[in-house]
User: Fold this.
Amino acid sequence: MSDLTRKTAAELAELMTSGQASSVEITQAHLDRIAAVDGDVHAFLHVDTEGALAQAKAVDGKRAAGEQLSPLAGVPLALKDVLTQEGVPTTAGSKILEGWKPPYDSTVVKRLKAAGIVILGKTNMDEFAMGSSTENSAYGTTHNPWDLNRIPGGSGGGSSAAISAYEAPLAIGTDTGGSIRQPGAFTGTVGVKPTYGGTSRYGLIALASSLDTPGPCARTTLDAALLHEAIAGYDPMDSTSINQPVPAVVEAARNGDVAGLRIGVVKELGGEGYQPGVEARFHEAVELLTKLGAEVVEVSCPHFEYALPAYYLILPSEASSNLAKFDAMRYGLRVGDDGTNSAETVTSLSREAGFGAEVKRRIILGTHALSSGYYDAYYGQAQKVRTLIARDFAKAYEQVDVLVSPATPTTAFAIGDRIDDPIAMYKNDLCTIPSNLAGNAAASFPCGLADEDGLPVGFHVMAPVMRDDLLYTVGAALESALAEQWGGVLMTKAPELEVTR
Amino acid sequence: MPSITREEVAHLARLARIELSDDELDHLAPQLDQIITLVGQVSQVAADDIPPTSHALPLTNVMRADENVPCLTPEQALSGAPAAEEQRFRVPRILEED
Assistant:
């Protein structure tokens, strides 16, 4: 049989249904691949070999017994280390949680398990999801499988690198300002941020609670849709969960018909600061959608330029409050408990030792933005800007069905390039942040390689709240048209990784 | 004139319960100054009559039914504790000595 790690999740499911492969074989093939290439890629922080094989065996047993199984049963997946999985180390990329084994499953993990999806392990990320490169992980940087000297994007760089390196066909990410979509763009894979509240935050170690959204990562649009359907839907354990049916994402990914769809190109997301190769691939993709019958117009969202500053007030404010729970009392690292130090001193020493530089930067920024005397000028004003951005979206959606832009201004940059320049780093997320502030659905789909550097470019689609299906309509149309040109999806152009074992 | 001084950063770190070293303060203060200049751009937007948005979607308060449901056992709840004693979290002293 040809290499199981090159198959899509949908193909693997078919192989299992038709009895040509077992979940144990498929899972073992991916574990072998991880052993062979993850020394160079470093997508995983923890590989749960035993647990994964046990899950796979259980699915095979149920299939043999003739039980009704869900569409992705037996397919392996990589899980971002920010979601709790009972008994499996969960660090959120931070030293402060080193060795912590959560006593409960997040809702996303519960649903993955219920669907029979096999969890291979936990993937690397910027500490507490603060970053755009994985360089802020306390456990080392993940390398982009397209060029090992480059970052894979972040914060969910581990998840996107894992699927791009064929270590897993599927992965879970979380998106607060672009942490699923930007790594998707940088690794030539699909990354979807569902509507805020469309997927549950229960058991997601919170960064900014009003923005955090778990979502699917995959190599194809259909695979992402299948995973989206498996994890989405109302959860009473999340107070901001939307109690409505999940949009018909799988059907949209199978149809992919954009004839008559009205697409708006956001004027403000392009031009100065955008890499020529990114813009070229983006505009070609827009042309292609026009040929497929979409009606394309340019739209203006004048307040998007203030999304970045507003985000860097709202996010640190919420993060400084959320991370206050790391007080060294109930779980996590404790430093300086020598019998003479007070609890308060132990908390301060533990946080000093356990948090990395970016986390400290953002906690202090958030503390500043929330201080009396500054609150109205910073946090209050940022919340008003948030309203204006939501209104820009609402106005645009009166005219068009979806908005599009490049997913990122540039392709993946070199490791170390921006680590000491926070503002250059923050500008990675210019295109992705508005959708987090407004809560709408958005996704990045591969649309080619930039001429300058041969690296993947992401096509960003933004759809109204609870119209996640429209993302997949556009993604599937683009994917099949481009695959026809290229003779396969973009990932087939990725260089072969050296097998180090 | 920086928008935030080294002393202010040290004060904020104390409020946030982070024991910063001198080196970190030297490094962080100028970076925060840059970031605060960036985020200060929000003040350029005329928004006096605009209502704030705290959440992307309209929220209503959610209550669960007041019923007993399974929860963590004491052993599970204490499983990640840095120190535990007699089925409780053991913490350093919370009062100052005098």
Summary: The mean pLDDT of chain A is 96.
